[in-house]
Prior knowledge:
Distance between the termini: 140 Å
Order of helices and strands: HHHHHHEEEHEEH
Strand content: 5-15%
CATH architecture of the largest domain: Single Sheet
Shape: elongated
CATH class of the largest domain: Mainly Beta
Structural class: mainly alpha
Strand order of the largest sheet: 1-2-3
Amino acid sequence: AKAKHDESNQESRSKDDQQLIGTMNESREVEESSSYDSEEDNWVNYFITNRGHEFFCEVDADYIEDQFNLVGLQNQIVYYDWALDLITDMDCEEQLSDGHRELVESDANVLYGFIHARYILTNRGLVKMREKYLACDFGVCPRLSCEGQPVLPVGTNDTRNKDVVKHYCPKCEQIYKPPGSRHAKIDGAFFGTTFAHLFFLVYPEMKPEKSKLHYIPRVFGFKLHESSHAKALASKQEHERLTKKVQSKRAQNRR
């Protein structure tokens, strides 16, 4: 009877332990889930995960909150204070109309772009962009001889509304229009003219050798000389000149 009583107590304790472990696991899952949701709900994460924003990295919150890093941006953004509050997930005390909120959201996109252009020139920003480069998040060079070389985003102008973002290939050292329409409206100033080239000064070991492969045009198996097209054009123009001269003489003889 005593043995049965001990076995009953052990089974009861085992069930209690299992329930306790299950409760702890459920609690842990809830905490992890709520933490994950809170990270997903912040504005910066929402922005960089939007379709077409794959080139952007996540700017650290402490960088955005440091006013020194934002010097000069106040004059370029109409709703600067509201836009900054939106980016940093600060609750707006003033109730905004739908139209006003759309303007603030638009300015927040622009403000984040300007901040991003500065951030990717810092050590922390370069590290994050390096991770995206290694993951081939920016795409590859469309040139066949570059053999799928990863590219970096680059701007052709540091001023907004001058040009959209381009691809820079470090192998052929040329820039290209990103394929598709997803990045057709992303301003090149949000990446700037310096980043792509500073990147390979900071990480020189990642700069590939310049491609030595070049397509060679041939006609019936023979390589064309560099002057071939110039000679063909000159010959055609001379033929047209002589033809016009003959036609002019014939017209005069008919008269």
